[in-house]
DNA sequence: GCAAAAGTGTTGAGAGTACACCCATGA
DNA sequence: TCATGGGTGTACTCTCAACACTTTTGC
């Protein structure tokens, strides 16, 4: 796609792309309770029925390649690196192009590069982000033209080394799912403890003791009661919580992560974010 | 420096550089015990006197910029991204150009980029690695032409946002210093528990209970007695250990890290590393 | 013996786990 | 009153920090 005459220059600058691993709970998971959550405090303790199908799975959207190499194969959503965007903004836009959802979490995962795929003659570097988005409605998972959602356990064969990258992201997610930080990003802004618990089990794929999970979450001090109750099945209504990050939570993961407040900033495309940790930049420097 | 006519193309590909934060213990730290460690098993339990000055600090080499912008200021060592090199190899070469030491640890830290420094008109992306090298001899810390070592607590003002990057790397190191993995990289291949302990204190800057530290290290199962003893002061000789990584240690940190075995590979410049995790690559992909 | 460093033992607090148990609710 | 999920109590283990203590060495 036209980067000038390649053979003209001995050391052609590598092309840089941004890719995103977008993760969400699949349609067979717990349903979000957003429908009845709104700002009016009309009934301090109202309850409402919703349905739930526990034990969902992680799904992710992939895009079909419309160019060589790997034409027709599935690949991670991505885009070019724009000069007037931060890396995060580029990742955000790649995410937007494949899903209508907004990421609740967006963090740089790793940068991949090297000579082993000089296929086109140009070296390639891909800066990969991973994102968590709220659970999509079932209809969102239906096939679109060139975008399709796949469950984590039934991925098609992927272009490039994207399978390796996805495994990388899944491993990262499972490492960090212990804390309410990430778990809450996969459900709606308000949730019951059982929903969180089901998310944790869906992500790890292993059973998690519910009682202890409850205590761990509550002990984190990052959950706050909304005052509402919700009835999932036909039984006793459950307390609804929301996630309240505490100030000093920046374990490198959250340092770079998109918080709810910065997400809005990111949406404005040409925003010039002043947050050091989000958009630190530097120049190249050679000693010779 | 000549990437063609910039105004010719609307979307100029960004330039990519590789920078390295190189960390080592300073000259005032414990001395390495390498001098008397060799392969001959002539004396199963010989001891030897060496000197030590505890409570060292972390030092790092910086290079003086010889170009605008920031001409004359200090900056992280770095280099351009070569098409025929993996990212790690590029980082390795940047490291070699500033120190004669070989990294015991080399891991990708973060990729920085964004519009806020479009100074030259070209957007810049820097893939930053951080490295731990064995303790250098005191003479290595003397000033060279354009390379100088600085203690972590007395850094000069730095070009670009390199100060932010260094803080990033230091934070990462302090997070992970709990485990023998990283601690052992900062000392020689063989060491006493007290040396490890002093390293831990130097890195964290806080006192660490020696007795508990000993137990934790030994409990890791990654330390192995060499059978030798060494006398640091004039007191009771201490057992010498070496680091033996266990097979299943890959907590993402070590997955990408340079192990002793791969370090040799890296040294051969044109080596085509086949390790997936070391040199995973992918192409750019746009849905439009 | 004394000082200094190597190395060990002991105790208690806190976190995490397994699992039994009670409570609220609709059928 | 029963089934089901919400929510609590409890006892056991494990880890880890604190710190007292013993051992080995040169002087």
TrEMBL record, chains A, B:
TM segment ranges? none
CDD domains per record = NUDIX_NadM_like
By its UniProt entry, which Gene3D superfamilies does this protein fall under?
Answer: Nucleoside Triphosphate Pyrophosphohydrolase (3.90.79.10), Winged helix-like DNA-binding domain superfamily/Winged helix DNA-binding domain (1.10.10.10)
Start and end residues of each Nudix hydrolase domain: 56-167
Q: SUPFAM superfamilies in the record, alphabetically? A: Nudix, Winged helix' DNA-binding domain
GO MF term set: hydrolase activity
Q: Does the keyword ATP-binding apply?
A: no
- According to the entry, every stretch annotated as the NrtR DNA-binding winged helix domain falls at 186-242
| Key words of the record | Hydrolase
User: Is Hydrolase set as a keyword in this record?
Assistant: yes
Name of the protein described by the UniProt record = Phosphohydrolase
**Organism classification:** Bacteria, Bacillati, Actinomycetota, Actinomycetes, Bifidobacteriales
